[in-house]
Amino acid sequence: MEEYLRQSEKQKKTGLIMLGAGAGSVILGTVLFGTAWNSGSNFAGGASVFLLTAGSISTLVSIPVIVSSASNGRKAAKLGIGTTQLVAPSSSGFSQKNYPTWSFSIPLNSQKQ
């Protein structure tokens, strides 16, 4: 369970970095393309095409990474069925009885305390 959570956090961080870098590259490439179009600079034109291509690929690759992160996060959540003992009043005082229970846990961080 902890391994899934750790892997989910790592993938989420990687996916968000790739998404941010890709979107930034696409924006920068678009601005650079407009500058190259107006000035006729071949270097700026080539750089803009490179940034647009690399940014688009990075953005598209980040989508499956983020989806995989969410999948691992769901696997880290744990649903269980068990029994617990509760003290219940009875005619002769109090007695312990077993009751069926459902437990659902969602780990919020992977660090042990």
List the helices and strands and how they pair.
Elements: H1 2-39, H2 42-76, E1 78-90, E2 93-105
Antiparallel strand pairs: 1-2
Helix pairs in contact: 1-2
Description:
The protein has 113 residues and is of the alpha+beta class. The chain is 65% helix and 23% strand. It has two helices and two strands; from the N terminus they run H-H-E-E. A two-stranded antiparallel sheet has the order 1-2. A hairpin with a 2-residue loop joins strand 1 (78-90) and strand 2 (93-105). Helix 1 packs antiparallel against helix 2 (42-76). The mean pLDDT is 82.
- Assembly status: single chain
Helix content: 55-70%
| End-to-end separation | 16 Å
Main sheet strand line-up? 1-2
Taken from the alpha-carbon principal axes, the silhouette is rod-shaped
- How many strands appear in the DSSP assignment? 2
The proportion of residues in beta strands is 15-25%
Q: Mind describing the biggest β-sheet?
A: 2 strands, antiparallel
Mean pLDDT: 82
Give the SSE order as H and E letters. HHEE
Given the helix and strand composition, which structural class is it?
A: alpha+beta
Q: Quickly count the helices.
A: 2
